[in-house]
Amino acid sequence: MPEIEYPDLPETWEWWSGNRGAAYYTRWFGTEHAENGYEGVISSDGLQTHSVQIYPILDIREDGELDVSELPEANKTYNTEAAAVAAVPELIREL
After folding, report:
1. Is residue 83 in some structural domain?
2. Predicted TM-score of the model (pTM)
3. How far separated are the first and last CA of the chain, in Å rounded?
């Protein structure tokens, strides 16, 4: 599998961690500061669908976990992982 190049994100945004299995992957990203921020994820279900969702952060729980909206403000699908990754900066700018 070719190495995916992650583009620079707009100011105050950063790439976070990710997981990859034989049939799926996830890659997280979000704002540097959680307050009034966003959490996003790129994922694949193993069926050649690559999705990007960006959710507003509603609160920070006492344990430090983020409480995010159930409804994404951005939700797009792409045919390849590379296309999904490349689309993230523009989706952020559209928020």
Report:
1. yes
2. 0.90
3. 31
The secondary structure of the chain in percent helix, strand, coil, rounded to multiples of 5, reads: 15, 45, 45
How many structural domains is the chain composed of?
1
pLDDT average, residue stretch 5-31: 92
Structure tokens at 64: 């430090």
Domain with 76 in it: 32-93
CA 66 to CA 58: how far, in whole Å? 8
Reported in sequence order, the residue ranges of the chain that DSSP labels E, i.e. its strands, are 13-20, 25-31, 38-44, 50-60, 66-68, 74-78
| Residue 52 placed within a domain | yes
Report the pLDDT averaged over residues 68-73. 96
Average pLDDT of span 16-44: 90
